[in-house]
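Narrative progress, year one. The postdoctoral researcher (J.K.) led the effort to move from monomer predictions toward full complexes, under supervision of the PI. The following entry was the first complex the group processed end to end, covering 261 residues in total.
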Amino acid sequence: MAALRDVASGFAHYLAGELSFDQKTTDTIRYGMEILLGAIVQGVIIIGASYLLGIMPYVVVALGTLSILRLLSGGAHFSTFGRCTVFSTSMAMSVGYLAIAVTPYMDKKAVALSVALTAFIALYLASRWAPVDSPSKPTTREDKRRAYKRLSSLYVVFWAIIVTLIVFVYGGRPPILSLILASTGGLIAQLFSLHPSGRRFVGAVDDVLSKCSIRR
Amino acid sequence: MLRQMKFKFLSAIATIALAVAISGTQPASWWVLYQPEVPEHLKDG
């Protein structure tokens, strides 16, 4: 999104002028600012929409689970911030709603089983495909790639242990089961963006959205 | 006094932006599922 980049760039140049930074530091600040502003805008849209729909806790849990794994494993990317926001918001709302809709049909054991199954699939996919590179910043060093792979797997194990403990200690309450299913849904969404078929799907959605966008 | 406060405030923002840029971008950026254009000097060698 050009506007976001322009605002980040303008702010970075203002900071550079006030604090006497060189060009390299200004560029780094522009990049950090673009991420921060993107996160704030996307956060407000997603959390605001989920609040209006009454599913905020589920969406926040799903996004929290997804974001941590994504930080370690990478994943498919959209070419513009706008498309990314549209897709992320739809995905987050779907995961939140599904978690609530599925809960009445699940008991503690079924949820624990789905957590275990998701964790096994996640371990396989993380060891096979992580880290998925961003085209603008590929990880070329082999030791770094191994570290991200290990960290992704470690996170999945840690997530599975914590979530299973919660299922068995607090699993009698339906809202807790919904939160756990939302977290599982968030993890599955991130796994989808790790697998090549998921990346192809994101590419196809990106193409379709680019055709829908207004050209000035 | 105000100048000093402004300087500290802007420095704090710059520090946060630098920390986000340097730490949270490989293989993906913090929180957002969108990767902005990365400065050349931050790319993996």
